[in-house]
């Protein structure tokens, strides 16, 4: 009968940490969008010195990361809605054990789907990092 989302217990603390992590993710995504815009401008003004292959690889990786971010945000918002439904549905003291277990199972499906999307996004961000490192090396070798 306690609203775990409002009490200052461990659930509230975890939810607050998750919200802060999501805010940090949004800030990181904004930085990636800025980098993508800068690199797109560079790509639209090619020169003989531009390491075009590496630049195109980074832009492709960033495009996929942008799509992954949109999908992740969509999953995250659906999970938040599912949590709200869970808390409101199970707040009644008349909730049966079977109903509670069913609600927990449904909520766990949302968590699982979100975690899968996080894994996909992490893998693609690793590719972005790798492609960016290759571009940086190509740029450095141009200067040497």
Task: Give an overview in words.
The chain is mostly helical and 144 residues long. Helices cover 83% and strands 0% of the residues. The longest helix has 47 residues, at 97-143. It starts with 9 loop residues before the first helix and ends with a helix.
Distance between the termini: 68 Å
**Category from helices, strands and their pairing:** mainly alpha
Number of helices: 3
Number of strands: 0
> What characterizes the major β-sheet?
none
What integer value in Å does the Rg equal?
Answer: 21 Å
* Helix-strand sequence: HHH
Residue windows where pLDDT falls under 50 for at least 5 positions: none
Helicity level, as a percent range? over 70%
**General shape:** elongated
> Overall pLDDT, averaged?
91
Strand residue content: under 5%
């Amino acid at each position: 009968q306690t609203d775990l989302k409002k009490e200052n217990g461990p659930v509230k603390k975890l939810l607050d940490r998750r919200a802060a992590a999501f805010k940090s993710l949004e800030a990181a995504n904004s930085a990636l969008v800025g980098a993508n815009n800068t690199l797109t401008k560079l790509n639209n003004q090619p020169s003989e010195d531009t390491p075009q292959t590496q630049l195109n690889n980074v832009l492709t990786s960033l495009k996929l990361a942008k799509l992954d971010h949109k999908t992740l945000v969509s999953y995250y918002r659906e999970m938040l809605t599912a949590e709200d439904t869970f808390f409101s549905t199970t707040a009644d003291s008349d909730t049966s054990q079977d109903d509670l277990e069913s609600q927990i199972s449904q909520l766990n499906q949302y968590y699982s789907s979100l975690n899968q999307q996080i894994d996909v996004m992490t893998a693609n961000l690793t590719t972005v990092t790798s492609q960016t490192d290759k571009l940086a090396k190509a740029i450095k070798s141009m200067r040497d």
